[in-house]
Amino acid sequence: MVFITDIVGQVNSIAWGPPMLMLILGVGLYLTLGLMFMPMRKLGYGFSLLWQGRQQTGEGDISSFNALMTSLSATIGTGNIAGVATAIYLGGPGALFWMWCTALVGMATKYSEAVCAVHYREVDANKNHIGGPMYYIKNGLGSHWAWLGGVFAFFGAFAGFGIGNMVQANSVADVLQSNFSVDPKVTGFVMALFVGLVLIGGIRWIAEVAGKLVPTMAILYVLGGITILVLNAEKIPDAVNLVFTYAFTPAAAQGGFAGAAVWMAIRFGVARGVFSNEAGLGSAPIAHAAAQTDSPVRQGLIAMLGTFIDTIVVCTITGLVILISGAWTGEVSGASLSSLAFEQALPDMGGYIVTFGLILFAFTTMLGWSFYGEKCVQYLLGVNAIIPFRILWVMAIPVGAMMKLDFVWLLADTLNALMALPNLIALVLLSPVIFKLTRDYFAQQH
Questions:
Q1: Where are the alpha helices (DSSP H) in 382-404?
Q2: How many degrees, rounded to 5, is the angle at CA 243 between CA 238 and CA 247?
Q3: Are the C-beta atoms of 436 and 126 separated by less than 8 Å?
Q4: Contact between 304 and 295 (Cβ < 8 Å)
């Protein structure tokens, strides 16, 4: 196991090295400039479309609203609770600044992914609308690029077991064991049972569950976090100062915190930012491809809200609560750090908010990512592979709940980077199409 961990660790340091971080931020910045900052300018318009998106406006399998909720169910997960805590624990408070940077340019990336997903989607043998990076690579770049779509699907199928399954199960098992002494085996079995019951119904059931659970859990978690920030309003300026100071200067060691170089803040901020909002990974467009819409641009405008809600709102609240509590200088990391910070700031209630928020976030993430992995496997092996994939998916949950956390995070991180690479290449090559569709859409609006 030590040997495997070492190999994965070496691949991870290359995969998340400076070239990859530059690529993620660079592609996001290129798309932001090419779109003339449209995602930031049209944020309000995007929210108005989201409200209208509860109604059917074209062909597809699920409403535009439920498509966003399905993608949000996959993105608002342990990345917002455990991921932010891990980024601050390893990279210092400055990591939160780099998470913000990733999100601001990530809005253009997420918008572009959804535009391509709807524009190049197909209808499969079961009459379902399918799309995502593998399809916009194949249909948008031509047959000689089809191998790159296969590469994405291969890494996407395996990455799901990390980011969308075992990491989630592990974080829930960790927080339930530390707060309520629940055996990880029990946690894993119960989560597997509930996930299995929803997966029987496919994307429509997943979307229905996500459409109900995601808004509820996000609002409750955000309200809990805002309550803590209001009660500790005088500490917020100092916390924000820590974020901006340590984004550009090394963070000194204090308490259990080992200290962190600026490079660590950038590395963990960007890596955990991508893990949290998934902009550039190519996962969310798989859900948006199933949306009932007659406009790729309209769906793109709804899709980009996912990055804003996930990182600028939810991750910021988690990060600030951790910083004002002072818990980040202790020995605790991951979901347990977030739980401790909330509990210190809101005794008798804070820990419960994180625990139950994490359980719901993780549960819906497993549902969303099962759909992503399923579509990747379907692209490679056809519709007959769907049922065996779902069985494997459910079986992996108890395994993840009992595994060592460090290795699971490392593997998930590495697979995310390998999955993002073909997607980012495709977005750059398809950018003229994205820019043209956007110009045409807004020209018709005036």
A1: 386-402
A2: 145
A3: no
A4: no
Q: How confident is the model at residue 405 (pLDDT cuts 50, 70, 90)?
A: low
Distance (Å, whole) CA 125 – CA 107: 33
* pLDDT tens figures, 147-202: 999 999 999 998 889 888 988 898 889 878 887 889 999 999 999 999 998 888 77
| Cα–Cα distances in angstroms (integers) from residue 242 to residues 1, 238, 246, 345, in the given order | 38, 6, 6, 18
* Residue range 204-214, pLDDT digits in tens: 878 888 778 87
What's the rounded Cα separation, in Å, for the pair 167 and 437?
Answer: 37
CB 208 within 8 A of CB 66: yes
Residue 239, judged by CB atoms within 10 A of its CB (0-12, 13-18, 19+), counts as buried
pLDDT of residue 255: 75
Position 57 pLDDT exceeds 70: no
Which amino acid appears at position 115 of this protein? V
What per-residue confidence (pLDDT) applies to 245? 94
Residue 290 CB coordination number (10 Å): 28
- Interatomic CA distance for residues 25 and 33, integer angstroms: 12
* In the block, residue with structure tokens 């056809």: 382
Q: How far apart are CA 346 and CA 308, in angstroms?
A: 26
Bridge partner list, 291 = 62
C-alpha 256/C-alpha 99 separation (Å) is 23
Cα 153–155–156 angle (5° rounding)? 60
Q: Name the token pair of 261.
A: 């170089």
Q: How confident is the model at residue 56 (pLDDT cuts 50, 70, 90)?
A: low
